[in-house]
Amino acid sequence: GWSQAEPTRKALREVTGKRGIVFGRSTFPSAGYFEGHWLGDNTAKWDHLHKSIIGMLDFGLFGMPYIGADICGFWDHSTPDLCQRWMQLGAFYPFSRNHNWEG
To answer: What is the per-residue pLDDT across 70-81, written as a single tens digit (0 to 9) for each?
Structure first.
C-alpha cells in the first residue's frame, strides 16, 4: 500500500514535472490522496458486475473516489449481452476501462 503509492506519486511528479495517475490494489488509510484504486481481476460473470457496484460504493465511503473495475471481466470469455451491460454501467465508474485478457 503506502510503500508503493506515495513514493510512486512523488517520483512521477519529480520525473515529469506534472501530475500523474497512480493506481493500486493495496490500500491504506488516506490512500485516496495518493492513488486511485482498481478492484482487481474479476471474472466475466453477472455476479461480478453486481459486485463491482458494491466495490465502487464501499471505496467511496472509504474516501477513495477514483476507483474502477475491469469492464467485461478479466477472466473468461464475456458474452455480448454481459459486456454491453457492463459497458453501460462502466460509463458511471470514476475510472473506466474494458480489460479482458481473452478479448
So the answer is: 999 999 989 999
Contacts of 54 (CB under 8 A, 6+ apart): none
Whole-model pTM over 0.90: no
User: What separation in angstroms does the CA of 37 have from each of 12, 14, 77?
Assistant: 17, 22, 24
- Nearest-angstrom CA–CA distance, 53 and 76: 20
Write the CA distances from 15 to 12, 19, 20, 39, 95, integer angstroms: 5, 10, 10, 28, 24
